[in-house]
């Protein structure tokens, strides 16, 4: 759960799409979005088409709240795309909910986007100077305008033309009256996969979205690949040249669901191994191992497995409260922490507790949890974190554009320990994190939030990045 960054660290979105003529594609999309709810809790939307008309239903809140009465329905529906959102670029407003639908010279387009375009502000300014009107404050609309202005003929050619003008992280589902398209940025920052359904095809941010509707996982969509689905089947096009792969390591640490598989790597297996390596690195001994549920649980079980110390449930989670990180204001996050967790006194009282969480970013929530455990009678609290210290902003969908909000940017590990009030504190090493990738290639990951090694071309910096972001952090 952790504090998940300050008021400027925001992630993320989930996209889903179904091409299945004759099926209730909007209901399938609803179920897919339900499985992807962890990726965004601010808003949800579904767009559907019967091949001639296209309609969208969107709203603020959780999937089951937005579609409380019914999901969008259309006789003869053939395709649908959906989106769950937490704001990265753009405010949390109804106007910024997705999917977006526009009319252009080639017909109707609906688009849903996960990620962050680092040059969106620059392109938007250029388009506005040329008379383009924007109705939202999200970077997704930049892509739509580029598609509409392209001189290419087919929608996939227009999309290729547009995507070759933008930079940063994006996974896209796009729907016309006859085609469903999925595209992933050339460096593969965010996940996207392809599934097979009886009589159709599915595109999802994570494989767990396929599982819930009984679709068969086919493969991950490759970085720089566009998949076009229509009545003739599936066609794959590489729209961008090969680039240095940079999948977001935080998908494995926190963002993705443990039952998902991303680029061949089981998220559960990676987190379990993070916990095992934590036990080896820290050498901590105690009476019990507990987790900060739910995101720290898999690593905590790995720690217990490796150390032989029993894993127990020491913090009770209120399952009816959303993820603390996915809250739009710090005040709401603070309130959610109090509502969400409570220590189990009979479990922790008098015990030396090893508490495992996935990250410490601002430190405020971790400090509250340590204090909570002490108030419940814990004799000692040793904290283990299944990621290295987060000391640098992210510009690729986790909006941490202010480095001073990150506790590891200004404090040593010992200073962080004192700040949160723990008896001991150990962060997983960067080498240990790479080692935890049991089947994926760790060299294909982005670790910039830990080491400032941003995966950009030489001499290029993410838009809005201050100079100090790229200075090497002095070792503690």
What report would you give on this structure?
The chain has 15 helices and 23 strands. It is α+β, with helices and mostly antiparallel strands. The strands form six sheets. It has a seven-stranded antiparallel beta sheet. Helix 4 (140-149) packs across helix 5 (155-163). The two termini are 26 Å apart. Mean pLDDT is 88; it is low at 1-11 and 463-476.
How would you write the strand order of the largest sheet?
Answer: 3-2-4-1-10-9-11
Cα(first) to Cα(last) distance is: 26 Å
| Helix/strand class | alpha+beta
Overall 3D shape: elongated
How many beta-strand elements? 23
Low-confidence stretches: 1-11, 463-476
Integer average pLDDT: 88
Q: Major sheet: size, sense and barrel closure?
A: 7 strands, antiparallel
* Rg result: 22 Å
Percent of residues in beta strands? 15-25%
Quickly count the helices: 15
Q: Helix amount, in percent?
A: 25-40%
Put the structure in a nutshell:
The protein contains 15 helices and 23 strands. It has 476 residues and is of the alpha+beta class.
Features:
single chain, 476 residues, alpha+beta, 15 helices, 23 strands, 25% strand, elongated, disordered N terminus, disordered C terminus
Show the helix and strand layout.
Layout: E1 13-19, H1 25-35, E2 43-49, E3 54-60, H2 63-66, E4 79-85, E5 100-104, E6 107-117, H3 120-129, H4 140-149, H5 155-163, E7 168-175, E8 180-184, E9 193-197, E10 200-204, H6 208-211, E11 216-220, E12 225-230, E13 233-238, E14 247-248, H7 250-255, E15 261-262, E16 265-266, H8 267-282, E17 288-291, H9 297-307, E18 315-317, H10 330-340, E19 341-343, H11 345-348, E20 352-357, H12 364-375, E21 380-385, H13 413-420, E22 424-427, H14 430-435, E23 445-446, H15 448-451
Helix pairs in contact: 4-5, 8-9
